[in-house]
Design brief:
Elements lengths: L1 E5 L20 E2 L2 E2 H11 L4 E6 L3 H10 L6 E6 L6 H8 L1 H5 L8 E5 L2 E3 L3 H7 L5 E6 L5 E5 L5 E6 L5 E2 L11 E11 L16 H8 L5 E4 L6 E3 L3 H12 L7
Parallel strand pairs: 1-4, 1-6, 4-5, 8-13
Antiparallel strand pairs: 2-3, 6-12, 7-14, 8-12, 9-10, 9-12, 10-11
Helix pairs in contact: 3-6
Length: 251
């Protein structure tokens, strides 16, 4: 199975740590976030991995090479010249994602700064037949993805401003299920042709919203999900306990 790790971000919320290292190498419990995620992916059967890099890209590449790629086949999608956001990052990595594999098989996409207890093998199995499967949670936020009664994506809303994005005119937001995206998703290569109409740099969520009326994109609200976004300094203090199971914070 294949996976892509988003590791190109600047990590501005983790300054001053990220003034000298990429967010992916910020340590938690003595191990960099990237190592923690790669080991989880490999243990779950994801042995072909693409990592996008930008901020201190050379440090990430050297770290992976020094550890013999943790027993996986790891390749790098170089965004050193320009950050491409999440959708653009996938688009640039298409040649790497299609190498040595069956084109129609989905691949996992995982933010490097997300820790969770989700069973990635089970998550992958649930994505059969979907164009995309999004790990979601019921955490309180201002911005939600909107799903119908079958958990199919139909839109997005900012509950504070009332803004709604949807390809469905007259969407009844109050009738929709509201979930927060958790930074982990399964992506089918059957969506690649839709990228042709998009620029080099764009958000994958905006992309999903543009095609959800034509392709089945579903939520995966995992029961008992525990998830932690380690993108902020205060979360680093909780992350070690999260990994040891002593403390978990819903996201």
């Amino acid at each position: 199975m294949k996976a892509m790790i988003f590791a190109a971000g600047l990590g501005t919320r983790l300054k001053p740590l990220t003034d000298t290292m990429p967010k992916a190498l910020v340590p938690v419990g003595g191990k960099p976030l990237l190592e923690i995620l790669i080991r989880k992916l490999v243990a779950s059967g994801f042995t072909e991995i693409v990592i996008n890099v930008h901020h201190f890209a050379d440090q990430i590449i050297s770290f992976v090479e020094e550890h013999d790629a943790f027993g996986a086949d790891i390749r790098f999608s170089d965004e050193s010249g320009k950050l491409l956001e999440t959708g653009g990052g996938i688009k640039k990595a298409i040649p790497l994602l299609l190498e040595s594999g069956v084109a129609e098989r989905p691949f996992l996409v995982h933010n490097v700064d997300i820790l969770s207890n989700v069973d990635l093998q089970d998550f992958y199995r649930h994505g059969a037949g979907a164009a995309a499967l999004l790990l979601v949670s019921e955490r309180q936020t201002q911005r939600y993805l909107l799903f119908d009664e079958e958990n199919r994506l139909v839109g997005w809303t900012n509950v504070k401003t009332g803004e709604v994005k949807s390809p469905y005119k007259g969407l009844d937001v109050e009738a929709c299920r509201k979930y927060a995206f958790a930074g982990v998703h399964l992506f089918s290569p059957r969506l690649f042709p839709y990228f042709d109409a998009w620029p080099d740099k764009f958000s994958v969520i905006d992309f999903y919203l543009s095609v959800c009326d034509r392709e089945p994109i579903y939520a995966y609200p995992s029961p008992g999900l525990k998830i932690l976004d380690v993108g902020k300094q205060d979360a680093l203090e909780k992350a070690e306990d999260f990994l040891t199971g002593e403390c978990c914070q819903s996201r």
